[in-house]
Design brief:
With 211 residues, this protein is of the alpha+beta class. It has seven helices and eight strands, in the order ααββαββββαααββα.
């Protein structure tokens, strides 16, 4: 059994209670997935930073929240990325639906608007350390806080999606975001990411806002 590092423990201390009382299932081989499993044994799914960070729970399809296993189904939202989301284990998300994921023994941040991923950490402890040090940027906390002051708590299963995508120049303001089911938000941005991948610089793209 792995021992949680002090920064991971501090992140859990600042988080909600576990989203399920079930034990997480084995998430596969590799050091990082073992570290993730150990964190979920300590707190099986949680929200933090006023719901700006959502870590998926594992092993309980009846928990009332999206399970990590369901979130990673190949036939779900990730299929819309036409290969851009392949090879990742997505385990958490910021308030805008940007994904934290494990691939090739790295924690990556996956941009839902472009389908690009940037490696950010080599361990769960390193990931937790970066979140605690820079949570305003990495989780979208300031905008999440302002939006909830104006509109109330973000419901379980929802994220804040930009009306004008950030990659297309949309502002990080509450007037430019709206509440949307997390699955639908990812499917919506998948259409954009595939367009951006296939179009030359300067070409026009189509984007829809879902009511």
């Amino acid at each position: 059994m792995l021992t949680l590092g002090p920064r991971t423990s501090r992140l859990l201390a600042a988080a909600t209670d576990a989203l399920t009382g079930a034990q997480p299932v084995g998430l596969g081989g590799g050091r990082l997935l073992s570290e993730l499993t150990e964190m979920l044994r300590a707190r099986n799914g949680f929200y933090a930073f006023e719901s700006a960070l959502h870590v998926f729970s594992s092993g309980d399809p009846d928990a009332g929240t999206e399970s990590l296993e369901a979130w990673n189904e190949p036939a779900g939202w990730r299929s819309g990325y036409d290969g851009l989301a392949d090879g990742f284990t997505f385990f958490a998300e910021d308030v805008f639906g940007s994904q934290f994921a494990i691939r090739d023994e790295r924690v990556c941040m996956f941009d839902p608007e472009t389908g690009s991923a940037e490696a950010m950490a080599t361990s769960v402890e390193d990931w937790a350390d970066q979140l605690l040090s820079d949570y305003e940027v990495l989780t979208g906390f300031p905008l999440a806080h302002r939006w909830q002051q104006a509109h109330g708590p973000i419901p379980v299963g929802k994220r804040l999606v930009p009306k004008i995508p950030f990659v297309l120049g949309g502002d990080f303001e509450i007037s430019n975001v709206y509440l949307l089911d997390a699955h639908e938000g990812m499917r919506l941005r998948a259409e954009l990411a595939v367009q951006l991948r296939d179009l030359p610089d300067g070409a026009q793209v189509q984007y829809r806002v879902v009511d």
